[in-house]
Design goal:
The structure is a homodimer. By secondary structure, the first copy, chain A, is of the alpha/beta class. The first copy, chain A, is 31% helix and 23% strand.
C-alpha cells in the first residue's frame, strides 16, 4: 500500500542527504537546538545543517547518504571554524566505521535521528562566536522574510 | 478597477498595523537589516518588528495605525531593554506630532517605508546584546523550520 501522507509525497522531491537533514533537524528541535539547513557560513561553503543551542552552542552536521558521498567531501575539517562540535549524519546502511573517530555521529532517516556518538568540543573564541551567531540570525530572518513576503527580493 | 495582484488580495487578510510592518521590513531589507515581525522578546511582550543590522545593531519598530492605537500602548519604553534604537512606524495620515520627540519615526505603507527621523541610540551592554541576538537567531530559525517542516511541531 502506498503512503499518501504529505511527508511521503514530499520525499520524492528531495535528495537522500536532504531527507537525512530533515530528520536531523527534528531531533535537534527535540534537543532545543534551532537549526538551519543548507547554510552558507562563507562564500563557497555550504553546510548541510547548522544548529544553535540554548546556551549559544554552535553545531555543524554534514549528512552523508553513501560512502561515495563521504569520500567526495574534502572540506569538512574547515567546518570547525564555525562550530563547537562537528557531526556526521548517516542512515543505518552507511558503513560508519569509515568515519573519523574524533567526530560526532548521528543516525538519521527522514523522520528523526539519534546521536550515537557525541562530537568532541572545540569551543569557538568569543568574538568568533558572536560573529557566527549574528550571521546565523540575519540569514534565518532573511530566509523567513523571503517566505512571508516574496516581493521583498531577498 | 480592482487590483487583483497577490499583494492587493493578501491585504484583505491582515491588519493595518501588519501592513505597515510589511512595508517597514521591506525598507529594512534595503538598509541591510534582517527583520522579524511580531517578535516576542520575553513572555508577555510582543514587538511589531525587531531588526538586526550588519554590525549587530538591534532596532525595535512599533507600527501604529491610528491615534487610538498609539494611546493604548503603555509598554513602549520597555522596548529599549532589547534594542539600541526605537522607532514608531505610521502612515501619512497619522498625527505624528503626538509621538515623543526622542524616538525614531518611520513613514510607511504596505509597500515600503522611509526613515523620517533617526532614533537616538542607547547601546545595549555586550552581554545583553549577545543574549538578545542569540534569541533572535533561535526564534528565526525555529519559525523557518515551522514553515519548511510543519510536522516538527515547533
Amino acid at each position: 500500500m502506498q503512503d499518501h501522507s504529505p511527508l511521503a509525497r514530499s520525499t520524492h522531491l528531495i535528495q537522500p542527504g536532504q531527507l537525512l537533514a530533515r530528520g536531523v533537524c527534528r531531533h535537534l528541535a527535540e534537543l532545543n537546538f534551532a537549526a538551519l539547513e543548507e547554510y552558507v557560513p562563507e562564500r563557497g561553503r555550504r553546510v548541510d545543517v547548522m544548529a544553535l543551542g540554548p546556551r549559544g552552542e554552535l553545531w555543524v552536521i554534514e549528512c552523508k547518504s553513501s560512502r561515495a558521498d563521504f569520500m567526495a567531501d574534502s572540506k569538512w575539517q574547515g567546518y570547525l571554524d564555525w562550530a563547537d562540535r562537528f557531526f556526521w549524519a548517516v542512515d543505518a546502511d552507511f558503513p560508519a566505521d569509515i568515519l573519523p573517530e574524533d567526530t560526532g555521529l548521528i543516525l538519521a532517516d527522514g523522520y528523526g535521528a539519534e546521536i550515537v556518538r557525541m562530537a568532541p568540543e572545540t569551543r569557538l573564541p568569543g568574538a568568533r562566536r558572536s560573529a557566527v551567531t549574528r550571521k546565523f540570525a540575519r540569514d534565518a530572518a532573511r530566509r523567513l522574510l523571503g517566505w512571508r513576503d516574496p516581493q521583498v527580493g531577498v
